[in-house]
Amino acid sequence: MALLEVEDLSVWFHTRNGVVRAVEQVSFSVDAGETLAIVGESGSGKSVCCYSLLGLVPMPPGRIESGRARFAGRDLLRLAPRQLRAVRGNQIATICQDPMTCLNPFLSLGEQLMEPLLQHRKVSRRAARAQALELLEEVGIADAGRRFGAYPHEFSGGMRQRVMIAMALIAEPKLLIADEPTTALDVTIQAQILRLIAEIQARRNLGVIFVSHDLAVVADIADHILVMQDGRVVERGAPRTLFRDPQHPYTRKLLAASRRGRKAAPPPPQREPVIGIEGLRTWFSAPGGRTVKAVDDVSLTLYRNEILGVVGESGSGKSTLGRSILQLVKPTAGSVRLGGTELTRLNESALRPLRRHLQMIFQDPYASLNPRMSVFDALAEPLRYHRLASRRDVTAQVLALMDDVGLPRSAIRKYPHEFSGGQRQRIAIGRALATRPEVVVADEPVSALDVTIPAQILDLILALVARHNLSLIFISHDLSVVRYLCDRVLVLHRGKAVESGATEELWAAPQAAYTRELLAAAPRLD
Amino acid sequence: MLRFILHRLLQAIPVLLVVVTATFFLIRLAPGGPFSADKAVAPEVLHALEARYRLDQPLSAQYLSYLGDLLRGDFGPSFRYPGRSVDEMIFTGLPATAELGLYALLISLLLGTAAGVIAALRPNSAQDYVPMSAAMIGICLPSFLLGPLLILVFGIWLDWLPVSGWGNVPGDKLLPALTLAAGYTAYVARLSRGGMLEVLAQDYIRTARAKGLPEWLVVCKHGLRGGLIPVVAFAGPAFAGLLSGSFVVETIFQIPGLGRFYVQAAFNRDYTMIMGTTIFFAVLIVAFNLLADIAAVWLNPRLRQQYRKPAA
Q: Has this prediction a pTM greater than 0.90?
């Protein structure tokens, strides 16, 4: 008999604007020692499906419309609140996406770690503490005794996720629900956490439900995969068959998103330098009199009509590098030359006319667009400011820009909230291109977008670079995106450039140890 | 932490100096003076009085000598109550006012937080609307209306509690404390409701539920600490406000407190008394704001670390 058997589960949300069918007639089962992966984009119902089993979906507005969930001889959906509480954290435990927001910032990690034990087992605090320390060692936290009283903000993302895992395991559950447990982490850390979950699962014969938006992440660990779209299961199967022969178009779309190829076009032959960076340093002073060397002695040349990828983990200084090049952050030392002009020596008012040539596309199109400016306002502002359009032809130019980035002309009076994430990023790209810049820095422009959207935006960027002879610096932590888009790659590690070279050469024969580590950690569908 | 406190104390000096200077010159700009009241006084007597209180000197000299006295902790003599110093009068009035303020603060914190938390547990239900509507009424009702109303109901109709006095009959402190607390209670309720609603929507609350903790533990252990930060930040200035704003309540209930001196002093143009009470309240406001900030830092581990000595 299966550990958990869910049949015909439907969860609807009854909101003021009508009924949202978040989960519709979903059935699956998980055995002990087995991993079930539920894959889909945000809003596909994959998380609601899991949390509703534990009564963790807010009700109202949520309501379980139908279904059974047999676990240890009982139906979870029909348990009284008190009985369900005895299951939660005890027999079924959860790990969530972002350990920063899922751990209580006001309580010490040790205190939070002991809670499930103190709640479900009759143990003393001393015994709970001993067990918690043992478990912290098991999930790979050195010096656990000293760090027992630490607070979440004192730990790195990967360490927090380890604590989260320890917290889930402490009462020795039979089933673990992991909701995107590695999405907020860097690739190398992601690889470590995935390995840790697999080890613990084997050791304890755990059943695992692994929720993810990325087929590549679950490829190695899943025994079964469930693909969900709009609350329904559209396809299911073992990874091998699913990857080899996907039936549903949506599965194919997800696969394509995880299986990006290499760049199609060869790099341009003529090499005309556009911007030259020499010995760039950007240091910040941190509390306690320390100095953070965010960018430390980086040199590079960007050529016309070229896309240079900058890769590295969070904290490697890649965003600061981008901002320092555009003089949005004043570099501490070094030179940035655009044409014949040394940018680092110019003050703000001397820089302003040059800003036309230096533009930026930001990561989050929700945050980077002014919610009170319509598409027209956002695109017309730079045109007017730099006197690129007269009052008469500003509308025509805005419409031309909208055509360029693939926005329907009818949307000109609309505001950002009326658009989807992908369309918003198109507005942001249009805004950056309005001044006909020479250099554009794109800082993770697709990582805030849903799984199947980035492909369209990446193709748009490729087309625009070719059409406008742009030079683009593309900052990303996602190696597959960089390979698809970039002609050359610069690898940053702790503010230093550890390696650079033509994309395919670097992929084929990475020189630096850190590059090799980074490439090996990236999840792949082969 | 010590550096933080020291830093804030140093910041308080210019604040107080501005208060002293502004009050000193403003009250002298107001028409009339301490001895220009009711009946006519013989010019010789007036001259003698002005000479005695240094009012015949130029304004700048008066200001400087006042500052000098102040540094020695001397608020000077009262102009209206001959033979009594301002220091003495403040310390006669303070105990009653402080006690009243403390009770009102406790009532508003306990009642307000409880109402706010209860409302936040089930937003947009009767459990939310009833306490929040009551809070709205509490904010709208001025104490000169609420006080007499309470006296009428509990003092006269029901005859449960004495209608006035302070410390003479058991129970006579309850009605004034309630009257003074009403507005603040309502404000605390709204603050704690807002704070709790925000915290209860956090992912870590779901984590706490996912651990199988009972709801009261989820709310009290995981929710309250974050949810009450806005209340703590408000409590400091609120206490200062309770102390300096108790004039109406003190008058209604015949309480020999500081608030009455303050207002009478303004009517009487009792310059030193006005200065003394204003400076005293300004010091209180600065001090309680500092206390509230310290409490907020203590509650939030992230801020706590920020103010800790940099690790070697």
A: no
